Amino acid sequence: MKRVIIGITGATGTIYGWRLMEMLREEGETEIHLVMSASAKLTLKMEHDIDPGYINSLAHEVHAPGNIGASISSGSFSSAGMIIAPCSIKTMSNIAMGNTGDLISRAADVILKERRKLVIAIRETPLHAGHLENLIKLANLGSVIFPPVPAFYNRPKTLEEIVDQSCMRMLDQLEINLETAPRWGEEGGVPAVGQKGASVQSV
Ligand SMILES: Cc1cc2nc3c(=O)[nH]c(=O)nc-3n(C[C@H](O)[C@H](O)[C@H](O)COP(=O)(O)O)c2cc1C
User: Residue 191: pLDDT above 70?
Assistant: First the structure.
């Protein structure tokens, strides 16, 4: 079974983190390691009437954010990669600067040094030059900068459809290809521009 680390931080959009885990559970071929920051727990409470116990139950192993000695803080722990969704500016900046004082930033730093896949679903707007400089640093270190920006060509009707499309694309980055949203130009998906019934119309 491959392993994936999911980090959830205190940026708005905690749904991305738990929906990723629900999708991986539906897939059933991935061992999920979860670490949630203290702020993520606060934000989750503000955003959803959801039992934090349910979020934990989606993971095969839950790591405390202060547990620097957890398995995922070592390069010898093999994994397909890590997705931080949503990722706050604080955690993103810590990773960019090599400040690894908590488990999310330490696990992310390990992923980078081991040349594995790190997907950062940064969630803030607008961004100032300092944010952008840190994001450039991370991009140069090989991480995938993945702001969860919705697509509209698939004509989403619900929040879930918007979230699922971004989550599917995040998992694509780890070569976990699920069909939880339409894919452009594919059968059963969204017709490519120019095909009959294409969703993008010229104005
Ligand atoms: C409801 C709520 C929404 C927030 N949204 C964001 C956000 O979108 N982006 C961000 O960078 N910080 C956001 N914050 C602030 C972070 O939670 C805060 O910077 C925190 O220290 C991040 O810590 P963490 O990275 O350890 O989770 C939000 C805070 C709250 C309470």
Answer: no
* Ligand 1 probe mutation, 84, 90, 122, most atoms within 8 A of CB: 90
Is there an atom of ligand 1 within 6 Å of 88 CB?
yes
* Residue with CA closest to ligand 1 atom 17: 10
Threshold 0.70, pTM exceeds: yes
The closest residue, in CA terms, to atom 30 on ligand 1 is: 43
Residue 194 has pLDDT above 80, yes or no: no
* Per CATH, domain 2-173 is 3.40.50.1950: yes
Instruction: Please state the domain extents for the chain.
Output: 2-173
Q: Where are the beta strands (DSSP E) in 27-75?
A: 30-36, 61-63
Q: Which one, of 117, 118, 122, lies nearest residue 166 by Cα?
A: 122
